[in-house]
Amino acid sequence: MFAFLHPRGRGPAEPRLEGQRVVLRPPRAKDWRAWAAVRRSSRDFLAPWEPTSPADALTRGAFRRRVRSHAHEFRRATAITFLILGRSDGAVLGGITVADIQRSVAQACSLGYWIGRDHARQGYMHEALGLVLRHVFVDLGLHRVNAACLPSNAASQGLLRKLGFRQEGYAREYLRIDGRWQDHLLFALLASEWERPAQTARAAE
User: Fold this and answer.
1) pLDDT in the model for residue 195
2) b/e map of 126-146 (b: 16 or more CB within 10 Å)?
């Protein structure tokens, strides 16, 4: 089950996904300090796998612009960005973006995700992505989820395979990561292949 909150009663419902150890919701302006602290402490850990960030990326103003952009994409139903929060303490652990949402004949989207250095390899991202996949296939009714990762990112490849994704291709110089165009492995998961977990989420109390 999923809870949908209507901020101030205006606009489309804001998704809130709850699991046993994590809670996912869109970022808010008040999250800046906690988000920036995780991103700052994880800078070297994340840099090899992400686009190069602008110099002001961690400032309050940049974060507020980011939040407004995410909200605009959500209202247009083109993307949904989630913060991953610890269920017990509300700490920011990482983030997931459901991007490039396509309707019509495609019914597809693409996944992007990151986890803070101190929270990696503890199962948080596996649980969080499981919640997002359920949201995508059950609530949004999409048919296909795409994901890409660097050939050198064994952890991400293992995570995607564990979730049921299949490798479908190899794209040369696919994305500009860490300052240079890099090849990527292409993965996908279809709704017909997804195994619905018995209990991956609960309604908000």
Assistant:
1) 84
2) ebbbbbbbbbbbeebebbbbb
CATH 3.40.190.80 fits 3-190, yes or no: no
What dihedral angle (degrees, nearest 10) is formed by the CA atoms of 161, 163, 164, 169?
Answer: -50
Helix (H, G, I), strand (E, B) or coil at 182: strand
| pLDDT band (50, 70, 90) for residue 12 | low
Is residue 152 within 8 Å of residue 158, measured between CB atoms?
no
Q: In whole angstroms, what is the distance from residue 140 CA to residue 132 CA? A: 10
Q: What is the distance between the alpha carbons of residues 114 and 100, in angstroms, rounded to a whole number?
A: 17
Position 199 scores a pLDDT of: 42
| pLDDT category of residue 2 using cuts at 50, 70 and 90 | very low
Any idea where the domains of the chain sit in the sequence? 3-190
